[in-house]
Amino acid sequence: MAGEVQVKKGSDINTPSGAQTDGMIRMNAITDLSDQLCGTVMIAKPHSASNVHHHGEEDTIVYAASGYGAIVWGPDGSKRQELAPGDFALIPAYAEHQEVNDSDGDVKWIITRGGRNPIVHNIEGWGKS
Q1: What are phi and psi of 39, to 5 degrees?
Q2: Biased-composition ranges for Basic and acidic residues (predicted)?
């Protein structure tokens, strides 16, 4: 039997999600409703970067809703991919990475993860998980 459709109004998306970093605002959207998926919103303020982190066993899909940001990953943060509005990115489970906003405006990403609630493990630097 199918479950009920759940809706979260944009005006109600304001609960902090996971570990917070200065300049990075993470908010729960759809969490604790499905055993397989959760959704959050991440806003990166101008000239900010997250801590190096990973999302445990959860694969992560990023949709760049607005602004121009980047994902840094790889050995010692040696790889970088710019994301523009409309772009998608897949961050595999346990992949160490960092979100970066070098621009003068906010970056807004819509995040979907493969788990009931979002997992964020901040680490002390590349390769220190």
Answers
A1: -135, 140
A2: 1-11
Is 102 in contact with 48 (CB distance < 8 Å)? no
Q: Is residue 97 part of a domain?
A: yes
CA dist 100 and 33 (Å) reads 29
Tell me the per-residue pLDDT of 21-67, one tens digit each, with 9 for 90 and over: 788 999 999 999 999 999 999 999 999 999 999 999 999 999 999 99
User: What domain count does the chain have?
Assistant: 1
Residue with tokens 């680490």: 123
Rg from Cα positions in the chain: 14
Whether the Cβ atoms of residue 42 and residue 26 lie closer than 8 Å to each other: yes
pLDDT at position 16 is: 75
Phi, psi of 77 (to 5 degrees): 65, 35
Q: How far is CA 37 from CA 7, 13, 40, 68, 127, in A?
A: 14, 17, 10, 26, 27
